[in-house]
């Protein structure tokens, strides 16, 4: 196993077209669940120039204003330029109703036998990961990339740099020694600007001060003299957003998870209601991995869950600790099987996935759409809880 | 005094009008005003006899028509009448750069004022400058139609043939030829003058009245009588009647596409323009004749009328207005001229072959000429036009008013129909059914019994205060509410809640109105006075003015910072906003139109009052109708201003989409959408939501750009450009004048179900034209083949010149016309529309026609061979051939009725039965002794008749059994 290496991860702001699509999709999921906790919906979204496409399949007992939600999201994200804005963009919705499946309208009073009777409806292999590189138990490169992206977005929203536009992306390269983060190798930030066309040198200066310096102020590892910092290396990025490049739901799976530091499933996370195991399975796997690391059973842990259509339990649970485990991977697997319920209905019930949108002001899934579905310290996520540590130890 | 002279024939009456004799003014008065009446098809007054002939629709009684004539005659006052005859020599109107002058100069130059001309001056000006009419394409006079019957190539040839006969001493021959020419001309004259009348009646409908200021009063006058100096009153939805310099405008916008080709409406103002040589489109202080007022209102002083207007100049330049021809007629013309080439080639061959075989030169010349006459299908375009015109008349019986020939053709090819939601799909009868205030939901039952708490009451008040409906009381003290259906519903709700609407509005006088606009989906009214009582905790001081706001819930909610809690103003929290949004979704999901209502003292910090949900019931039978359109292969598209969930709920209810997926495009601004993207999108979309009427034009154009034949319904003024642009613009009988004037068809009973009838008619007419053409081509071709083969093979002449003429010009005409009146095939609405690029006679049709005519001629030649073997070449054999071919052709008409087997159950065509019976009778009548000498026929015996019957029936059997009908071929 390699010990010394360099690894990069990237993140994008919520204004990036792919993320904008994720956010619209998740805002729709939120709205459905706010109206009816048992609502079923799958939404996909694409955006290009000034046209937003929404394709949704849902059970017919609820009706939401898809276009209005999309417009609200576009406005929240901050698109207000004539080229693309919430008011004048065109939205094509393609709606299809699903047959009602009452099996999935289960409530919280499920017996164990009931849970066993509710099979998953999708096949997927999902991964969860945790490591001791950061307090959030996330790999450092994606952690930093998210932090930079979020800060970039905050600077835009707070109008600290008035010329910034919502679209942007960040990348952080971290040098590892002995499988531990050693130094920051490189930082790249591409920020979009509105049509006022600021001076490039000024922009680079501003971003450095307001974004990079602010982000690393409370980090242990900071850029050193040799760290290569690129800010808009290809020059200004005027307007950015959907007007310049198209976006699609579920295209940023690595950014949603661990920044490619560990494996991740190919299935999109956003735009799916909690009955989709390819979404919530990923959360469950993270929950398991994080608890193992938090319980000091390993420094790094990757949990793999494989589900097959028609079965309630995963057909395979695998743990990989990359040689950092205090006990063997097989024993860890047994521990997981003992203490975690990986069945669909159990996950939905235990995480309260259907009620969170109504309980969380501003929506629950909407907030997941950017800056990662896992390893978040800024919002309370049930799968980030380390409440199984005692049981595991 | 009106006296009925003749009113036995339904739909046609002649009256004697005493004063009409030698009074040209009354004639024009009567004709003009009668043509404005619904149900009158055409009128023609005769000043020499003092009679007036009125053609009218059958639903009008003759008594009613008589009343109408009497009424109009009474209204006639000789003083106003103008001697139009003198006006032909009118003065050259001054042409000037009127846009560069200021208003006062213009008024002075024209010796008028902003209060209008006096009647006297107007009268003088009319004498001086002439009428405000454009040089029209003269309608063909009856005489001309008759003369034109003799001006065709076949008639010329026939005259040569007659001349030859005279030269060779065959006077009787010549007489028969000319007789045939006469019969043919008579048939042509009758059908053509009939269709000419129908086509003319299409035109006479758009001669509206125009409002002008005269003697300080607004009067409606005949558009033709507008003179320079008149003050035009421009209102939305009207065509501008003459070129005018604007002297007052209020949000005036005009569609000048008729003149400039620019489809975007132009905003007008009154300011003088300084620069010289400003292009027509930029002269924003002018209004031009023929353009359409889309919005706002204004006054303009007329600076040019008639042929001196810009559009008149353009017409003069082109020197003629295009004659109404249809693509169909053009196609047939092409086919016709190709066949002329073919026929003349064959005729030359027959002539050469006959001459070489040693037949007499003159005889061969006559036969070839006759063959040419028989073979040249010169009447194809005429037949098409006649059928289209007859179709128009037929559609009138079904309450479908067709306004152009092209529309009939396009109707049959419609692939997509865009339907307005309001008024077309729904009844446009809004009523409030739900009110949601503060978290409380009130269901409004049938009696509008509202248990009004303070907040609900305030909401109802604001809904009345932010409302453009005009409310008055009639003499019985009942409220009279006029305005849009939505706004009226709100007023009725308030009345039902026991609010004195008039007093309420008086209490808070209106200061300013900010209407809904393209990028603002709410209406705001600023009114004097405070809506909160002095004692109210929420107000520290009495406000002078308040805003009353209602509109799209989302947008209104965005303007709100507060809500009412037991009368007190408290901040609106995010959770409450979400609750309101959820409630909006829920109401919209029930297909309600939802409005948000708020009031306040600062325009962006309003107090949220609640949501009002209104229902507009879907018209009875629309769902069924949508299904019928789908079955006929026509895509349905709904256009609505509603928000997406409301639109979705209705779309779902109506099963608007042909698959289980409904595509909704929500766009307020289609202008900025990339053209290609819009085209790609529009083709897929089932519902256009939150669309303003202005965007309809873009939708039509995008759909047409991807090759669709589009029908569009519309009622409003804003719909006019889209209706005009659509292949078939459909207006309702109650629509605005603007919509009715530009529409291709008008559904007089306001019933969309009539549209499916129209489509069925359109398709049937197209199919019938094909059937008639098919029949004519097949029979003509069979004659050519018989003559060519017999002559070339040296078997004598099966048909002589006269027989050919008889066959072609007498016996074939009636079945062809009868085929044009075929009833609709039973599956006409079960097949997809034809492709617009498909030519009327496809290559496969030509093959089929060739096959059928080969069988026909083969059978005839066989009968002829029997005759030749039995009697030798001569009269008797040729009589057998003549009878075989004629009867074979007549029976072939049966086969041409449909592309499926005629044994199948297809509706009977009485006209065809009559035509066949008549033609066959004629055919046997000429066999009678005495008459048969004219056509040079010989008497026949029983065997001959059996052979003839066999050879006539044989092609029918063969052609029927070889039909290959596939459902899609129609």
TrEMBL record, chain A:
UniProt domain S-adenosylmethionine synthetase N-terminal: residue ranges: 5-97
Return the SUPFAM superfamilies for the record.
S-adenosylmethionine synthetase (SSF55973)
According to the UniProt entry, its GO molecular function terms are:
methionine adenosyltransferase activity
Species classification: Bacteria, Bacillati, Cyanobacteriota, Cyanophyceae, Oscillatoriophycideae
Domain of life, per UniProt, equals Bacteria
Descriptive protein name: Methionine adenosyltransferase
Q: What class of enzyme is it?
A: transferase
PANTHER family, A to Z: S-ADENOSYLMETHIONINE SYNTHETASE (PTHR11964)
Which NCBIfam families does the UniProt entry name for this protein?
metK (TIGR01034)
Q: Name one Pfam family in it.
A: S-AdoMet_synt_M
Automatic annotation (TrEMBL), chain B:
**How does the record classify its membrane topology?**
Multi-pass membrane protein
N-terminal signal peptide: none
Could you confirm whether the keyword Transport appears in this record? Answer: no
SMART domains on file: Cation_ATPase_N (SM00831)
Question: Where do the Cation-transporting P-type ATPase N-terminal domain residues begin and end?
Answer: 97-170
TM spans (from-to): 339-357, 369-392
* SUPFAM superfamilies, sorted: Calcium ATPase, transduction domain A, Calcium ATPase, transmembrane domain M, HAD-like
Q: Which UniProt keywords apply?
A: ATP-binding, Membrane, Nucleotide-binding, Translocase, Transmembrane, Transmembrane helix
Q: Could you tell me which InterPro entries the record lists for this protein? A: ATPase_P-typ_cation-transptr_C, ATPase_P-typ_cation-transptr_N, ATPase_P-typ_cyto_dom_N, ATPase_P-typ_P_site, ATPase_P-typ_TM_dom_sf, ATPase_P-typ_transduc_dom_A_sf, ATPase_P-type_domA, HAD-like_sf
- Give compartment(s): Membrane
Q: What is this protein called?
A: Cation-transporting P-type ATPase
User: Could you name the domain of life of the organism this protein comes from?
Assistant: Bacteria
Q: Which NCBIfam families match?
A: ATPase_P-type
Asked if Ribonucleoprotein is a keyword of the record, the answer is no
């Amino acid at each position: 196993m390699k010990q010394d290496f360099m690894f990069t991860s990237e993140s994008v702001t919520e204004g990036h077209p792919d993320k904008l699509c994720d956010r619209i999709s998740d805002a729709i999921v939120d709205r459905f669940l706010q109206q009816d906790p048992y609502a079923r919906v799958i939404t996909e979204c694409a955006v290009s120039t000034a046209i937003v496409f929404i394709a949704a399949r849902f059970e017919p007992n609820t009706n939401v204003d898809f276009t209005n939600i999309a417009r609200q999201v576009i406005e929240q994200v901050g698109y207000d330029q004539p080229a693309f804005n919430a008011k004048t963009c065109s939205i094509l919705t393609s709606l299809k109703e699903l047959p009602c499946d009452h099996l999935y309208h289960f409530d919280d009073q499920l017996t164990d036998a009931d849970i066993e009777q509710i099979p998953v409806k999708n096949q997927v292999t999902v991964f969860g990961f945790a490591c001791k590189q950061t307090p959030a138990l996330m790999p450092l490169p994606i952690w930093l990339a998210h932090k930079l992206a979020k800060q970039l977005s905050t600077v835009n929203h707070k109008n600290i740099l008035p010329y910034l536009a919502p679209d942007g992306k960040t990348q952080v390269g971290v040098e590892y020694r002995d499988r531990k983060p050693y130094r920051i190798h490189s930082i790249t930030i591409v920020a979009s600007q509105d049509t006022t066309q600021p001076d490039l040198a000024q922009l680079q200066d501003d971003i450095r001060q307001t974004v990079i310096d602010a982000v690393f102020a409370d980090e242990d590892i900071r850029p050193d003299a040799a760290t290569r910092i690129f800010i808009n290396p290809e020059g200004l990025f005027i307007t950015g957003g959907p007007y310049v490049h198209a976006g699609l739901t579920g295209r940023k799976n690595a950014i949603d998870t661990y920044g490619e530091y560990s494996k991740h499933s190919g299935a999109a996370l956003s735009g799916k209601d909690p009955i989709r195991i390819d979404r919530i399975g990923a959360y469950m796997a993270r929950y398991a991995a994080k608890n193992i690391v938090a319980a000091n059973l390993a420094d790094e842990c990757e949990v793999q869950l494989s589900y097959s259509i028609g079965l309630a339990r995963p057909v395979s649970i695998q743990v990989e600790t990359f040689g950092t485990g205090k006990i063997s991977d097989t024993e860890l697997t047994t521990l997981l099987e003992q203490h975690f319920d990986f069945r669909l209905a159990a996950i939905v019930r235990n995480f309260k996935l259907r009620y969170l949108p109504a309980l969380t002001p501003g929506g629950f899934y909407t907030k997941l759409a950017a800056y990662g579905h896992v390893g978040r310290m800024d919002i309370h996520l049930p799968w980030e809880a380390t409440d199984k540590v005692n049981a595991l130890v | 005094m009106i006296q009925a002279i003749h009113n036995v024939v339904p739909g046609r009456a002649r009256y004697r009008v005493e004063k009409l004799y030698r009074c040209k003014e009354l004639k024009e008065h009567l004709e003009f005003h009668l043509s404005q009446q619904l149900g009158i098809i055409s009128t023609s007054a005769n000043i020499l006899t003092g009679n007036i002939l009125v053609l009218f629709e059958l639903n009008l009684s003759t008594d009613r028509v008589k009343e109408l004539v009497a009424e109009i005659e009474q209204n006639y006052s000789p003083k106003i009448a103008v001697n139009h005859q003198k006006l032909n020599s009118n003065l050259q109107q001054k042409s000037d750069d009127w846009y560069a002058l200021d208003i006062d100069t213009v008024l002075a130059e024209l010796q008028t004022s902003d209060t209008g001309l006096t009647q006297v001056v107007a009268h003088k000006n009319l004498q001086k400058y002439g009428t405000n009419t454009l040089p029209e394409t003269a309608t063909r006079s009856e005489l001309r139609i008759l003369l034109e019957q003799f001006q065709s190539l076949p008639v010329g040839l026939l005259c040569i043939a007659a001349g030859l006969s005279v030269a060779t001493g065959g006077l009787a021959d010549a007489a028969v030829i000319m007789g045939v020419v006469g019969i043919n001309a008579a048939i042509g004259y009758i059908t053509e003058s009939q269709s000419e009348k129908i086509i003319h009646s299409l035109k006479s409908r758009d001669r509206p009245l125009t409002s002008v200021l005269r003697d300080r009063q607004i009067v409606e006058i005949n558009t033709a009588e507008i003179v320079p100096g008149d003050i035009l009153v421009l209102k939305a939805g009207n065509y501008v009647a003459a070129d005018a310099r604007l002297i007052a405008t209020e949000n005036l916008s005009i569609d000048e596409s008729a003149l400039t080709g620019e489809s975007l409406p132009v905003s007008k103002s009154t300011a003088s323009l300084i620069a010289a040589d400003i292009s027509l489109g930029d002269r924003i202080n002018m209004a031009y004749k023929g353009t359409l007022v889309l919005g706002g209102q204004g006054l303009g002083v007329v600076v040019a009328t008639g042929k001196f207007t810009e559009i008149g100049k353009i017409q003069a330049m082109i020197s003629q207005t295009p004659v109404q021809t249809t693509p169909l007629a053009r196609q047939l013309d092409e086919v016709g001229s190709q066949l002329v080439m073919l026929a003349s080639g064959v005729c030359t061959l027959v002539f050469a072959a006959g001459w070489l075989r040693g037949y007499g030169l003159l005889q061969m010349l006559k036969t070839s000429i006759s063959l040419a006459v028989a073979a040249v299908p010169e009447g194809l375009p005429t037949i098409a036009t006649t059928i289209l015109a007859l179709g128009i008349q037929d559609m009138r019986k079904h309450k479908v008013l067709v306004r152009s020939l092209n529309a009939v053709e396009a109707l049959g090819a419609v692939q997509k129909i865009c339907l307005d939601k309001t008024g077309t799909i729904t009844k446009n009868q809004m009523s409030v059914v739900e009110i949601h205030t503060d978290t409380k939901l009130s269901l409004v039952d049938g009696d509008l019994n509202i248990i009004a708490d303070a907040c609900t009451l305030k909401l109802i008040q604001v809904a009345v205060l932010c409302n453009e409906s005009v409310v008055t009381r009639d003499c019985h003290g009942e409220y009279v509410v006029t305005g849009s259906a939505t706004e009226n519903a709100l007023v009725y709700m308030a009345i039902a809640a026991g609010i004195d609407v008039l007093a309420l509005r008086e209490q808070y006088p209106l200061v300013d109105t900010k209407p809904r606009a393209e990028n603002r989906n709410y209406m705001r009214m600023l009114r004097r006075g405070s809506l909160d009582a002095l004692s109210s905790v929420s107000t520290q001081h009495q406000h002078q003015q308040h805003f009353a706001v209602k509109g799209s819930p989302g947008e209104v909610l965005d303007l709100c910072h507060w809500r009412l809690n037991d009368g007190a103003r408290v901040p609106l929290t995010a959770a409450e906003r979400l609750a309101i949004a959820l409630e909006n979704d829920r109401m919209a999901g029930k297909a309600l139109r939802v409005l948000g209502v708020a009031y306040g003292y600062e325009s962006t910090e309003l107090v949220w009052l609640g949501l009002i949900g209104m229902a507009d019931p879907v018209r009875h039978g629309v769902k069924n109708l949508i299904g019928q359109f789908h079955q006929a292969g026509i895509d349905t598209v709904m256009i609505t201003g509603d928000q997406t969930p409301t639109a979705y709920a209705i779309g779902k209810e109506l099963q608007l989409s042909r698959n289980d997926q409904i595509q909704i495009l929500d766009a307020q601004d289609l202008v900025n959408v990339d053209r290609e993207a819009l085209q790609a999108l529009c083709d897929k979309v089932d519902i256009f939501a939150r669309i303003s009427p202005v965007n309809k034009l873009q939708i039509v154009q995008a759909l047409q750009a991807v090759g669709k034949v589009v029908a569009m319904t519309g009622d409003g003024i804003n719909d006019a450009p889209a209706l005009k642009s659509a292949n078939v613009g459909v207006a309702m009988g109650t629509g605005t004048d603007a919509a009715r004037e530009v529409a291709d068809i008008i559904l007089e009973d306001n019933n969309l179900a009539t549209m499916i009838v129209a489509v069925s008619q359109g398709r049937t007419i197209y199919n019938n034209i094909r059937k008639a053409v098919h029949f004519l081509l097949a029979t003509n071709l069979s004659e050519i083949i018989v003559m060519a083969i017999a002559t070339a093979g040296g078997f004598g002449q099966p048909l002589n010149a006269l027989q050919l003429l008889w066959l072609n010009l007498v016996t074939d005409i009636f079945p062809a016309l009868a085929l044009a009146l075929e009833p609709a095939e039973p599956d006409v609405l079960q097949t997809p529309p034809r492709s617009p690029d498909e030519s009327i006679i496809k290559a496969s049709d030509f093959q089929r026609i060739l096959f059928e005519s080969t069988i026909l001629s083969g059978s005839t030649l066989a009968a002829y061979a029997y005759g030749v073997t039995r009697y030798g070449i001569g009269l008797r054999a040729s009589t057998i051939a003549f009878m075989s071919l004629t009867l074979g052709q007549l029976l072939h008409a049966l086969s041409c009725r449909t592309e499926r087997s005629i044994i199948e159950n297809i509706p009977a065509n009485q006209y065809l039965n009559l035509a066949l019976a008549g033609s066959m009778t004629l055919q046997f009548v000429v066999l009678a002794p005495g008459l048969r000498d004219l056509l040079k026929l010989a008497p026949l015996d029983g065997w001959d008749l059996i052979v003839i019957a066999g050879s006539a029936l044989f092609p029918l059997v063969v052609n029927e059994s070889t039909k290959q009908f596939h459902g899609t071929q129609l």
